[in-house]
What we know:
single chain; alpha/beta; two-stranded antiparallel sheet
Amino acid sequence: MCLLKITIGPGANNGPNEPSTSRGIGLEVWVPSPADWNQRYLGVGEGGYAGLPDVQDTNALSVIGQSALRAGEDGFLTVNSDDGHSAGGGSDGSFAFRPNGKLNWPLLEDWAYRSLHMMVLAAHDIARNFYGREPKFSYWSGGSTGGREGLMLAQRYPHDYNGIISAYPAINWPSFVPSIMWPQVVMNRDLGHPISPGKLELVTQRAIAACDTFIAGRHDGYISDLASCHYDPVGDTGLLCPESKGGSDSCLTKGEAVAVDKIWYGPTIDGKAISPGSDNGFEPSLSLGHLWYGYNRGVVLYNSPLTYGVGPAGVTPFTIGAHWLAIAAGDPALADRSLKSGSVLARDGWKTLGYSGDKSFSSVFIRSLQQFGSMNGTDSVDLREFYKAGGKIIHWHGLADNQIPVGGSVNYYERVADAFGGFDNIQGWYRFFLAPGLGHGRTGAAGLHPPVPGGNANDGFGINYAILPALERWTEAGVAPAVIHVSRKDDAEGERFWCPYPAQLTVGGAKTAFTCSVGR
């Protein structure tokens, strides 16, 4: 097998006064020998802002490339990309600014969509020249930004891929990425300080205990039906602190409980708290004044890099969100101090954002939609060309995702179904699966390891790769995945699986096996 390192471009040189900061679009391509090639091409997506510097380094292999190698060993011609920049990794948005502090639109467009089409062109060119023929089938596998990229391909380049796996996708980017910072804005405005990890863990476990739905006849330890969960910490007398114990991790003050309710609900136009009894924030469509979905009950809200990843309400901000506020506003000073942008310094300006006025969270949120909705929103429901071309999509999202709220995926799938006249009209080519207990491609609810395809809860690529054979059967033989099987050996009731939305996993009438049923 050969590894090719390819650079396409550069493409960001717009004149002598605005020097290019681009090295071009970098690709890593695994090329199996002709005898080993399975006549399939697999594109592999990136994470966050992408920008993996090792992609163009001929003496190194990127993290995504190491995952792609697995597919190459199985005979796939495989390509991954740095999305056109190398700004220090997936959490770093500094590539979006030129040295003078102005937005670098060519690099933003490379990252949003242009690099995706270049991957396909390069793969097919290599196949023609090396194997003497085109791939018979082209597949995409991506999670997070890679999931967004998969749906972007279906929307913008509908003939590039036959089958797409879009996992926990970063679609609705101009809405959800500023919303990453909503928990920080709430804590800063309402409390003047972050809520401690111990308190966040406590309220998360109280929510799980209140809303575990006993699907298996016992507590699973995570929430499987978010729509039915209306737990309100403000009314939980066993959780609230007496005044003398406000600093203890064994309870929450009323102000902290209100802040947690706001975090779970998601950003609103005026910053007011909404009663979970009337609206818990998990609805197929947003209510009036509800800007975007929050991080659901049962999600790990604090920073725990070794186990659950970066939480939105951690002691320090999630830098992807902090950097995006600066990009959306065109003002590097708004970011946290990890942003590096030439002569213009980041100054934690997000701390000045309030609930109202010219310098409010909602004003930056609206600017994000206006500036970037058409570039990387990736929420168009016009998939007619992809459908006509015979394409297939498997889209899945963990119900305990602590980086991309699952409500955005539900909202998108509901809107696609409406555009095509109902769920029955899209099940033949687009299926969406909710994954109980699973976080951002890994363990979700605190301390638990929910069952997943392939048995690996800490490897998003591994989960996708376990699903890939189902996508191949569907694309090449017309056999749709009725369910997605998951690995769990301790269920006396039977094998577990993910159900195609809107169905949910339930115990059968005889309580001897699991089944999928539509509860609406």
